[in-house]
Amino acid sequence: MSAHIVTEAAAPFTIAAGRLEVHQVPLGADNLGWILVCTATSACALVDGPEVGPLLAFIAARGWRLEAVLNTHTHGDHVGINHDLARAGLLADLRVVGRNRRPGDLPGLSEPVGEGDTVSVGQVQGRVWLTEGHIDGHLSYVFDGAVFCGDTLFAGGCGRLFDGPPAAMYDSLQRLAGLDGATRVCCGHEYTLDNLRFAWSLE
Questions:
Q1: Cis peptide before 165, with omega less than 30 degrees from 0?
Q2: Do 68 and 46 contact (CB within 8 A), yes or no?
């Protein structure tokens, strides 16, 4: 496998008035995995990823307690963590949060959610938004200060429309655009240069 396009992960940051710490972990060739840590309890959750090894090593080195997996959608490079955890015999002990549509598509799903539901990491709660367009049933997790938007929104672009229609993606992007301007966007891939090259070609 080639080296990851990101050679140095973004610095960790806190959201929700310091109650949640967020860490970025580059995975695969261009995926971005996310670890959310409740600063009061050291309980943490993973958001998406093609592989779990680097995430588990990161957590173990810091003495945190993994309690949950939050999946934005069911593409293989986002639920690879679920498959790896299942093979290691660890998935059954975790809360696995994901879309409530076609639940059999998501390995280990124990907490099916949809539009308007809430999700917790330790003592911190976030909101579940349905942000379709990339695929049907795509979710984003909105916390105070950050949104974990999978393949809906990237820097300089959006996800490819597998299911669409374009109007669904447009509505999802408009909704995300309505978040507070200081909200951090935690997406599933690092595609910035490719997206900007494409935008420049159109200009």
A1: yes
A2: yes
